[in-house]
Amino acid sequence: MKNQSLLRFATVPAACLLVATGLIIVRASASSSSSATDTDKKFVTEALKGGMAEVSLGQLAAQKGASEDVKAFGQKMVTDHSRLGDRMKVVASDIGVSAPDSTTLGDTAEKAKLEMLSGKTFDDAYIKAMVKAHEDDLKAFQQEEADGTSPEVKHAAREGAAMIQSHLDMIRKIATAHNVDNSASYHKPSPYGSFAHGR
């Protein structure tokens, strides 16, 4: 009987702790949502759409690429942007943003253009597109990191910027190896380009 009484009293603090922990989580989630501005939310939405586009184009490059380095880069886009997309989905949920289920019409049209190409023509077009896109993406992520309001979104932008910088360094080296002129007019709008291109 005494043991049962002690057990009852012992469970009370534990129950209180669970309730308090639940309240802390709820309050933290509400705080994350309230601290995110419309600009933060737009960035996350565009980042998710852009990540889906990078994965889709990466899959295309892995399949259609004529050279091994283009194929490998395409596969890396699939792996890395899938991972970044998962991270951004968590952020989106925390700030009250619904994850988009499709890319932009511009990205869909871009993929259709690349699907019509093959061999070296495909490789060169994909390389040029990726150089320009990653240059624009890097600016967008760095801008959010510098000017964003939500600490969680800013942190995700900082992580994303580091990854994108790495990709940009890689694709620039590939461009040099393929003698691709990055100043050419071929231009794929940045998947995250609503900030840079007004999409």
Q: Topology of this structure?
A:
Elements: H1 2-35, H2 38-64, H3 68-94, H4 105-115, H5 119-147, H6 151-177, H7 194-197
List keywords for this structure.
Ferritin; about 200 residues; mainly alpha; disordered C terminus; about 0% strand; about 80% helix
Short structural description:
This protein has helices at 2-35, 38-64, 68-94, 105-115, 119-147, 151-177, 194-197. It is mainly alpha-helical and 199 residues long. It folds into 2 domains: 1-35; 37-197, Ferritin, CATH 1.20.1260.
Question: Mind explaining what this structure looks like?
Answer:
The chain has about 200 residues and is mostly helical. The chain contains seven helices and no strands. The termini are far apart. It folds into two domains: about 35 residues; about 160 residues, Up-down Bundle (Ferritin), CATH 1.20.1260.10. It is elongated.
In CATH, the homologous superfamily of the largest domain goes by the name Ferritin, core subunit, four-helix bundle
Structural class estimated from helices and strands: mainly alpha
Using the 3D structure, state the CATH architecture of the largest domain.
Answer: Up-down Bundle
Question: What is the percent of helical residues?
Answer: over 70%
Report the β-strand fraction as a percent range: under 5%
Query: Which spans of ≥5 residues are poorly predicted at pLDDT below 50?
Result: 15-30, 184-191, 193-199
Pfam families: DUF4142
Keywords: Signal
Protein name: DUF4142 domain-containing protein
Organism: Acidicapsa dinghuensis
